[in-house]
């Protein structure tokens, strides 16, 4: 059994242990648990449309926090981006969507949603806006109404873009790359 200490002699570790003992006895409701400790919501497979992979994502993201990246078209300053995305956030708020907005660049913002099940509806709203260049959601890039002609490639994914770049670099070098060390010295 642990020794009895005076409460005034407790250090941080003792206080942490005491807090754990108190919390162990508490009954915490499921809604009060952090998101990563909550049990996942049951998925109703009858609502899944096999022709639409987005329907699967909607059901699996329901009730979970999700982030989407939004790019503002043109060459806006950070203040303009702040104003434009603030208008979008206000419109979404008026439509009863709980969205938080964070500016991450001069033309880029993150929209954080408390319930990821609504992400595709919000994405549809954003890409219909005049100044929206694109929306990135779950690795998919959706071009917006404000996208240039060269940006309007439908539903490209970012990893493919990086993969294509690597492939073209490999072809241009003409040298086979691997992870083995060689004894030969290459002349440049």
From TrEMBL:
List where Basic and acidic residues composition bias occurs: 148-188
Protein's UniProt keywords contain Acetylation: no
**Keyword Signal appears in the UniProt entry:** yes
Q: Which GO terms describe its molecular function?
A: low-density lipoprotein particle receptor binding
Alphabetic keyword roster: Chaperone, Endoplasmic reticulum, Signal, Wnt signaling pathway
User: According to the UniProt entry, which residue ranges have a biased composition of type Acidic residues?
Assistant: 23-32
What GO CC terms are in its UniProt record? endoplasmic reticulum
Q: Spell out the subcellular localization from the entry.
A: Endoplasmic reticulum
Q: Which domain of life is it from?
A: Eukaryota
Stretches that traverse the bilayer: none
Chain intervals for the UniProt region annotation (Disordered): 21-47, 140-188
Q: What is its main location?
A: endoplasmic reticulum
InterPro entries under this entry?
MESD
| GO terms, biological process | protein folding; Wnt signaling pathway
The family database entries (PANTHER family) matched by this protein are listed as: LRP CHAPERONE MESD, MESODERM DEVELOPMENT CANDIDATE 2
Q: Which family does it belong to?
A: Belongs to the MESD family.
Under which name does UniProt file this protein? LRP chaperone MESD
Q: Which organism is it from?
A: Agelaius phoeniceus
